Amino acid sequence: MRLLFYTAGSNAESWLEALRRVLPEAHIDGWPSALAGEADYALVWKPPVELLRALGQVKAIFNLGAGVDSVPDVFALPPDVRLVRLEDAGMAEQMAEYVSHAVLRRYREFDAYAEQQRLSEWRQRPRRPKSEFIVGILGLGVLGTAVATALAPFGFPLRAWSRTHKLLSGVATSTGMSELDGFLAGVRLLVCLLPLTSQTQGLLDRARLSRLPQGAYVVNVSRGGLLIDDDLLVLLDNDRLAGATLDVFRDEPLPPEHRFWHHPRVTLTPHVSAVTLVEESVAQIAAKIRCLEAGRPITGVVGREYGY
Ligand code: NDP
Ligand code: OXD
Q1: How many Å lie between the centroid of ligand 2 and the Cα of residue 138?
Q2: Of 24, 52, 157, 225, which is the most buried if we count CB atoms within 10 A?
Q3: What is the pLDDT of residues 150-178, one digit of tens each?
Q4: Is residue 165 flagged as an active site residue?
Q5: Is residue 125 annotated as part of the catalytic site, yes or no?
Q6: Do domains 2-89+276-293 and 91-268 have the same CATH topology?
Q7: φ, ψ of residue 206 in degrees (nearest 5)
Q8: CATH assignment, 2-89+276-293
Q9: Could you report the per-residue pLDDT of 94-127, keeping only the tens digit for each?
């Protein structure tokens, strides 16, 4: 079996070492390779379009991440080639940690207490009614579900929005564009866990963000392209929104001149809310390759018509 491997990241050696250990029978070529056309499987992160064009009859292309938006021109891949994404692979727990922290920080007003400490001010703030602190999750897939499940024991009212109808105990669900405005109304903390697709690109613009109540918070942990940066900044500047926690950006690394860096209402992290774990990911991909070789179906195949 021949694998073609490529990552735009800096840890190619860790991937290759893990792959050789888990799939000792495989012959692994790194891109660029004259043998790309003979590969049975391609394992890629942010591949150049030339790599995809060089592939022959691959049985599957494995994306080394959950989001496939960095695979150029997904729609141009031959329709019979499966594009497979990572499903959880250790990211759900990380995402649950990150978002729980963001929610508890805002609800329990830890920033206000930090400021009080700076001023040596001993003052107990009144407890805010939890029933009014509605957390809304855009995207109730693998990661959105993990976040909702982690938040449920705290007792926040939870809402989630997805493309197709979903049922999750303790979560009020809604579906599709016609229900989006109703979903946003009343959400005090909005978590974005949608994939970046032609349907979701720029979804969080000024009009949609303005549906959130005065003083709401935004947490974007999926892709920067979902959010219109300038629209968010206007709403933060004019006190309409109280704060944003951003892990993902249109341009990464975030350019030094971007206003997000120093905005008092923005907290940012460098795309670390859920990092790809090499061992877990390689184990998942190897298990799927074994299924395919045995003629069994696999999950995580990207639906080309929706782009995720
Ligand atoms: P899933 O595919 O499991 O879930 C995606 C969810 O979004 C589903 O609920 C889906 O609806 C919903 N959705 C997709 N398109 C639309 C639409 N047009 N309208 C409404 N809902 C929509 O993905 P994951 O949960 O695994 O990952 C989500 C994203 O998180 C990834 O695409 C990636 O961009 C990002 N990510 C970020 C990381 C980071 O470190 N910051 C790490 C890992 C992932 P339905 O359920 O109906 O299909
Ligand atoms: C992913 C990511 O999509 O790391 O997996 O952002």
Answers
A1: 16
A2: 52
A3: 999 999 999 999 999 999 999 999 999 99
A4: no
A5: no
A6: yes
A7: -60, -40
A8: 3.40.50.720
A9: 999 999 999 999 999 999 999 999 999 999 999 9
